[in-house]
Design goal:
The protein is an alpha/beta fold. Helix content is 38%, strand content 24%. Helix 4 runs parallel beside helix 7. The model has no long low-confidence stretch (mean pLDDT 87).
């Protein structure tokens, strides 16, 4: 006897406003989810995967983005026809959701324990003490350290991985039949990501849930998926078992996505032994103090950098990898003097910039520029692209006419049309905004580029385009690059040497090929072993797909 699916989506279409770039956010989508199954829905930003998954719970972006056709059947009941009261009864109780960014999904003024308790109180009649016991059980079940302490903590007092675990505990508190996970690991470090994936898999098997896992990361897909549905422009272009889609993809779009996944095998080794050293970081130290001594509060000192030393040669790309809190971004910001080091030396072409005042530092700033992680947050939304790129050269004495001509050249260099000059940042996609940030950094013709997680928020195909662009510009302009990332796949493809950081210290340094082939430090081995889908990535099928021209 065939067991009916737990959830069935039939011919679902979700309309977009009249001025949108297409008619439907989701168009004629049909798929099913069984118990004890993980269905991964894969696609780039704008493919409709998140809109489709949120529709299951009746969560819509606005009244202009609503279902206009189809059915969503949960145990035979059409959720699109359910009353608001019925949907409220199902949310959390039978169908739960983990959101991509826990810091915005969690209430910042409520303690973690109170937020999980609220779910239990709304759906159950258990007394307060029974609910407290259940909350502690859930915090322990998701492997959070010291549940009693986490119970009374606020979201900002937890790390990103801990906040994500707290959200998982909240979602699973009522043992739902279906869990919808919307990009739950995108912003996490590789080791934390591996832990969260293992946790979701473990809980899913124990409770026999059906899981819809929304992601754009094929490494994650290879790690957890039983079945895969690939979405493009609101439509499903391919679906099948994990092995079928990953090994024998039928759709060109699927092959394009798979080919864009960076390999863990480093590229050809480049020799820099005779090149001049242009950046010297020597015994760099930086600490931060948190808390306040007012009203008896405790002041805590955190050593972000402790004796960091490394060299970068002309034309070389040195990657700095590690988890959040390892100190890699602090190093980057010290090099460009956005942060003041406590002690140590930073030599740019032999000149120590740590002790320079702002006036003496000004000519150095032309030679050292930075590309930031969040291209939208680092671009002034009230200024046009042309104004953003021209600002630096004009400040340094270039005429407005020459600065504008240079801006047009730079936009063409990064693959954007010159008409972008008069447009605003919000009119561009994430990948395009990152290109604008790169053009702005190149406007002063720097010798050294510091790139802080420049592709971490991008889709895999856009990421591949930006990395290819960066490699091309590096070759054409002879740039020296300090590349900050937590993605070891990306580091393997763009970096010549790599520094592995942990707790403010460099625990291993060497060529990418040597470090990846034979890591000396246990932490480096842990990072490499935690890369999602590493076994699939190393397989012949994956290597062949990356070599396919589509």
């Amino acid at each position: 006897m065939t067991v009916p699916p737990l959830l069935r989506i039939e011919g679902l279409s979700i309309s977009l406003p009249a001025n949108a770039d297409r008619r439907y956010a989701v168009e004629d989508v049909s798929l099913s989810l069984s118990r004890n199954e993980i269905l991964c829905v894969v696609g780039e930003s704008g493919s409709g995967k998140s809109v489709m998954s949120r529709c299951v719970l009746g969560l819509f972006a606005s009244r202009h983005v609503m279902p206009c056709a189809g059915r969503i059947l949960f145990e035979g009941e059409d959720l699109l026809q359910a009353a608001p009261e019925r949907l409220r009864a199902l949310r959390g109780n039978r169908i739960a959701m983990i959101f991509q960014e826990p810091m915005t999904a969690l209430n910042p003024v409520l303690r973690i324990g109170a937020q999980i308790d609220e779910v239990l109180e709304v759906h159950q009649t258990a007394d307060k003490m029974a609910r407290r016991i259940r909350v502690l059980e859930m915090l322990a079940a998701v492997h959070l350290p010291d549940p009693e302490k986490i119970l009374t903590a606020y979201p900002h007092q937890l790390s990103g991985g801990q906040r994500q675990r707290a959200m998982i505990a909240m979602a699973l508190a009522l043992q739902p039949d279906i869990l919808i996970a919307d990009e739950p690991t995108t912003a996490l470090d590789v080791t934390t990501q591996a832990q969260i994936l293992a946790l979701i898999r473990e809980v899913q098997r124990k409770q026999g849930m059906g899981v819809i896992f929304v992601t754009h990361d094929f490494g994650v897909v290879a790690e957890v998926a039983d079945r895969i549905a690939v979405m493009q422009h609101g439509r499903i272009v391919e679906q099948g078992t994990s092995n079928e889609v990953l090994s024998r993809p039928r759709a060109d779009y699927t092959r394009t996505l798979l080919a864009a996944v960076p390999s863990l095998t480093p590229g050809p080794k480049r020799d820099f032994s005779t090149a001049a050293v242009v950046v010297v970081v020597k015994d760099l130290n930086k600490s931060f103090r948190t808390g306040s001594s007012w009203f008896g509060g405790a002041v805590r000192r955190v050593d972000a950098l402790a004796g960091v030393s490394f060299n970068v040669r002309r034309g070389e790309t040195v990657g700095i990898v590690g988890e959040s809190g390892s100190g890699k971004t602090t190093v980057a910001r010290c090099i460009v003097r956005l942060l003041e080091a406590d002690s140590g030396e930073i030599l740019i072409n032999g000149q120590d910039i740590v002790s320079l005042d702002q006036r003496a530092l000004r000519p150095i700033r032309k030679r050292v520029q930075m590309v930031f992680q969040d291209p939208f947050g680092s671009l002034n939304p009230r200024r046009t692209v042309g104004q953003l790129i021209q600002e630096g050269p004009i400040v340094h004495g270039v005429t407005v006419a020459n600065a504008r001509a240079r801006t047009v050249e730079l936009l063409e260099l990064v693959g954007l049309d010159q008409r972008a000059v008069d447009r605003y940042p919000h009119e561009f996609s994430g990948g395009q905004r990152q290109r604008i940030g790169l053009a702005r950094a190149l406007a002063l013709e720097p010798e050294i580029l510091v790139a802080d997680e420049p592709v971490s928020a991008l889709d895999v195909s856009v990421q591949a385009q930006v990395l290819s662009l960066l490699a091309d510009i590096r070759a054409r302009l002879g740039l020296t690059i300090v590349f900050i990332t937590h993605d070891l796949r990306v580091a393997s493809q763009v970096c010549d040497s790599v520094a592995v950081m942990r707790h403010g210290r460099i625990v291993e340094f060497g060529s990418v090929a040597d470090v990846y082939a034979d890591p000396k430090h246990a932490y480096t081995r842990e990072l490499l072993d935690s890369v999602p889908g590493r076994l699939w990535s190393d397989s012949n099928d994956a290597k062949n797909l990356r070599g396919t021209a589509v």
